[in-house]
């Protein structure tokens, strides 16, 4: 058996393990969808009236604001699941089962790819729930089937990047508590982007940060695909960020996994 | 005609390992013959688990050379991994999966194919008495069941060499005996076992050879009987009502006295004859003992004798 087919078959086995975990504890996936839904309700019904008229003038309201923040809420969902991944990787690393895997003749990276692909599936499920709720609340995207497929593709690419990053963060943590805190910035980054208010309304320093951080081009591209706004060079920037983060995080995660466990 | 001896399962020379400036292993040499049980005996922190981690490819040694089942550990770790099985101190099972799923996971990772994996799983569940719990999550298992599942998972790939790192620590006496029987069965089937333990009795029951480990060095090596001969026998402890009686007894029996506790420790193996002799001699002098207790040799005696400190000292020093 070649190294590649071996890595694939071992990764498939590990993915099977992750999917069983998901099936056994569906409450976890629901929790990851629950938090963004609470934020969605909060932003639409508490802030939505004022924000909507600020955004689109006197005739703007909740409905306009819901359309505006939906992409940001989707990214919060992605970040939320990423945080869960860091926790589950850190938990996994403290369990004897990982030591067992390390002493077996299997493709080493398969433990990690199992986590990553499992998280990707979990994220897509959570995103479907969150988007469903947004549609129920009155989210009215203008996207056709092609744009929807592109949007799902983009969200998957982003998830891939954040998941490899959170896998690395999960392994970096020496405890489950640290693992739940390390990816925190990921949760907050969508707020410091064009996700909830236009960056022009921010003070200069913050505005510079918001316009140059990776989540902004992702949100702009997503908004463009779903709502038909201008995309410009955001798509290229978004994909470049994702590719860079994925590559760096993958190398980092692999290195962390292969180091001597000190425990 | 004698058969040529089988090549040893493990040959390790000059193993050293430090974590920072803390020396964990200091020049360890080991040779484990095929088809035997080899026990590493020592208190917590002696370096037993570190040896197992190095030999099972989990961590690297700072220096030294190891060959396992004919493979060089550094040059070809995957070949070593393919031939060994490890059952750790903390049960290495996936608590979220059922017993059956855990075994199937191992079957898939060993690439047995679906049908063979199923057959092997059913066989092991039966053999390890886990049939009733097969479809329950492993997190609901008792300590003994988890250890059995752990060992069963190790056996899925038919390893020729198995590391058992403190397989019975924390188990109740019955589960411990069950585990011992399982280990004996394995060796009867031709497997080599490396067992770490802090219990002299366990090494005594199971091991063909024992290496006593202290502060990262092997302080003694041999069969259980060879080691026991090196350990002075136990002692008999007598307590008296007053200093006069203690005085009289010490005159007759010798031994070491503790005037505060009013006790006298007399060396002896604790056998009935030894106890009878002591009591007869006390009777002859009309000295009456209030209390008698027999102390048989245990790991502490081994340590006291071999290293000049007790194993609990060692724990305290580690904690400090």
From TrEMBL, chain A:
<dbReference type="InterPro" id="IPR051784">
    <property type="entry name" value="Nod_factor_ABC_transporter"/>
</dbReference>
<feature type="transmembrane region" description="Helical">
    <location>
        <begin position="148"/>
        <end position="170"/>
    </location>
</feature>
<dbReference type="Pfam" id="PF01061">
    <property type="entry name" value="ABC2_membrane"/>
</dbReference>
<dbReference type="InterPro" id="IPR047817">
    <property type="entry name" value="ABC2_TM_bact-type"/>
</dbReference>
<protein>
    <recommendedName>
        <fullName>Transport permease protein</fullName>
    </recommendedName>
</protein>
<dbReference type="GO" id="GO:0046677">
    <property type="term" value="P:response to antibiotic"/>
</dbReference>
<keyword id="KW-0046">Antibiotic resistance</keyword>
<dbReference type="GO" id="GO:0140359">
    <property type="term" value="F:ABC-type transporter activity"/>
</dbReference>
<keyword id="KW-0813">Transport</keyword>
<keyword id="KW-1133">Transmembrane helix</keyword>
<keyword id="KW-0472">Membrane</keyword>
<dbReference type="GO" id="GO:0043190">
    <property type="term" value="C:ATP-binding cassette (ABC) transporter complex"/>
</dbReference>
<keyword id="KW-0812">Transmembrane</keyword>
<feature type="transmembrane region" description="Helical">
    <location>
        <begin position="27"/>
        <end position="48"/>
    </location>
</feature>
<feature type="transmembrane region" description="Helical">
    <location>
        <begin position="182"/>
        <end position="199"/>
    </location>
</feature>
<feature type="transmembrane region" description="Helical">
    <location>
        <begin position="235"/>
        <end position="253"/>
    </location>
</feature>
<feature type="domain" description="ABC transmembrane type-2">
    <location>
        <begin position="27"/>
        <end position="260"/>
    </location>
</feature>
<feature type="transmembrane region" description="Helical">
    <location>
        <begin position="111"/>
        <end position="136"/>
    </location>
</feature>
<dbReference type="InterPro" id="IPR013525">
    <property type="entry name" value="ABC2_TM"/>
</dbReference>
<comment type="similarity">
    <text>Belongs to the ABC-2 integral membrane protein family.</text>
</comment>
<feature type="transmembrane region" description="Helical">
    <location>
        <begin position="68"/>
        <end position="90"/>
    </location>
</feature>
<keyword id="KW-1003">Cell membrane</keyword>
From TrEMBL, chain B:
<protein>
    <submittedName>
        <fullName>ATP-binding cassette domain-containing protein</fullName>
    </submittedName>
</protein>
<dbReference type="InterPro" id="IPR005894">
    <property type="entry name" value="DrrA"/>
</dbReference>
<dbReference type="InterPro" id="IPR003439">
    <property type="entry name" value="ABC_transporter-like_ATP-bd"/>
</dbReference>
<dbReference type="InterPro" id="IPR050763">
    <property type="entry name" value="ABC_transporter_ATP-binding"/>
</dbReference>
<dbReference type="InterPro" id="IPR003593">
    <property type="entry name" value="AAA+_ATPase"/>
</dbReference>
<dbReference type="GO" id="GO:0043215">
    <property type="term" value="P:daunorubicin transport"/>
</dbReference>
<comment type="similarity">
    <text>Belongs to the ABC transporter superfamily. Drug exporter-1 (DrugE1) (TC 3.A.1.105) family.</text>
</comment>
<dbReference type="InterPro" id="IPR027417">
    <property type="entry name" value="P-loop_NTPase"/>
</dbReference>
<dbReference type="GO" id="GO:0005886">
    <property type="term" value="C:plasma membrane"/>
</dbReference>
<dbReference type="InterPro" id="IPR017871">
    <property type="entry name" value="ABC_transporter-like_CS"/>
</dbReference>
<keyword id="KW-0813">Transport</keyword>
<dbReference type="GO" id="GO:1900753">
    <property type="term" value="P:doxorubicin transport"/>
</dbReference>
<dbReference type="GO" id="GO:0046677">
    <property type="term" value="P:response to antibiotic"/>
</dbReference>
<keyword id="KW-0067">ATP-binding</keyword>
<keyword id="KW-0472">Membrane</keyword>
<dbReference type="GO" id="GO:0005524">
    <property type="term" value="F:ATP binding"/>
</dbReference>
<feature type="domain" description="ABC transporter">
    <location>
        <begin position="10"/>
        <end position="240"/>
    </location>
</feature>
<keyword id="KW-0046">Antibiotic resistance</keyword>
<dbReference type="GO" id="GO:0016887">
    <property type="term" value="F:ATP hydrolysis activity"/>
</dbReference>
<dbReference type="Pfam" id="PF00005">
    <property type="entry name" value="ABC_tran"/>
</dbReference>
<keyword id="KW-1278">Translocase</keyword>
<keyword id="KW-1003">Cell membrane</keyword>
């Amino acid at each position: 058996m070649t190294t590649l087919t071996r890595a694939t078959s071992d990764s498939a086995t590990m993915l099977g393990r992750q999917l069983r975990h998901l099936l056994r504890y569906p409450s976890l996936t629901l929790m990851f969808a629950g938090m963004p839904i609470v934020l969605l309700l909060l932003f639409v019904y508490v802030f939505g009236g004022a924000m909507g008229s600020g955004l689109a003038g006197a005739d703007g309201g909740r409905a306009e604001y819901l359309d505006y923040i939906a992409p940001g809420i989707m990214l919060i969902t992605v970040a939320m699941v990423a945080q869960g991944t860091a926790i589950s990787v850190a938990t996994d690393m403290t369990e004897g089962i990982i030591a067992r895997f390390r002493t077996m003749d299997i493709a080493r990276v398969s433990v990690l790819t199992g986590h990553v692909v499992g998280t990707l599936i979990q994220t897509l499920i959570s995103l479907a729930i969150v988007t469903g709720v947004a549609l129920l609340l009155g989210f009215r995207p203008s996207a056709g089937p092609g744009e929807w497929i592109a949007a799902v593709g983009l969200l998957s690419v982003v998830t891939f990047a954040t998941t490899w990053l959170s896998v690395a963060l999960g392994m970096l943590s020496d405890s489950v508590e640290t693992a739940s805190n390390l990816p925190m910035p990921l949760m907050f980054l969508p707020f410091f982007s064009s996700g909830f208010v236009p960056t022009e309304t921010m003070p200069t320093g913050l505005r510079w940060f918001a316009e140059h951080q990776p989540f902004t081009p992702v949100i702009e591209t997503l908004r463009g695909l779903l709502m038909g706004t201008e995309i410009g060079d955001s798509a290229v920037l978004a994909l470049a960020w994702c590719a860079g983060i994925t590559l760096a995080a993958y190398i980092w995660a692999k290195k962390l996994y292969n180091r001597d466990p000190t425990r | 005609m004698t058969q040529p001896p089988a090549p040893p399962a493990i040959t390790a020379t000059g193993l050293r390992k430090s974590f920072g400036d803390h020396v964990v292993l200091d020049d360890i040499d080991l040779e484990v013959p095929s088809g035997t049980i080899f026990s590493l005996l020592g208190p917590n922190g002696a370096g037993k688990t570190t040896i197992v981690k190095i030999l099972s490819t989990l961590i690297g040694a700072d220096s030294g050379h190891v060959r396992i089942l004919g493979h060089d550990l550094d040059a070809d770790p995957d070949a070593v991994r393919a031939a060994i099985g490890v059952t750790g101190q903390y049960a290495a099972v996936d608590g979220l999966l059922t017993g059956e799923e855990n075994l199937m996971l191992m079957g898939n990772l060993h690439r047995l194919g679906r049908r063979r994996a199923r057959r092997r799983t059913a066989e092991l569940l039966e053999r390890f008495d886990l049939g009733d719990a097969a479809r329950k999550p492993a997190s609901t298992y008792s300590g003994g069941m988890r250890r059995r599942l752990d060992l069963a998972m190790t056996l899925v790939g038919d390893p020729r060499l198995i590391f058992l790192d403190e397989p019975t620590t924390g188990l109740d006496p019955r589960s411990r005996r069950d585990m011992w029987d399982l280990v004996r069965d394995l060796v009867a089937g031709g497997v080599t076992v490396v067992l770490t333990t802090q219990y002299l009795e366990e090494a005594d029951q199971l091991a063909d050879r024992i290496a006593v480990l202290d502060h990262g060095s092997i302080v003694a090596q041999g069969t259980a009987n060879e080691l026991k001969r090196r350990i002075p026998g136990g002692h008999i402890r007598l307590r008296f009502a007053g200093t006069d009686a203690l005085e009289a007894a010490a005159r007759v029996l010798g031994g070491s006295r503790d005037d505060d506790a009013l006790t006298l420790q007399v060396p002896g193996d604790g056998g009935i004859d030894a106890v009878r002799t002591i009591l007869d001699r006390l009777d002859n002098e009309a000295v009456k003992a209030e209390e008698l207790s027999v102390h048989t040799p245990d790991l502490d005696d081994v340590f006291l004798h071999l290293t000049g400190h007790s194993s609990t000292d060692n724990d305290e020093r580690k904690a400090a």
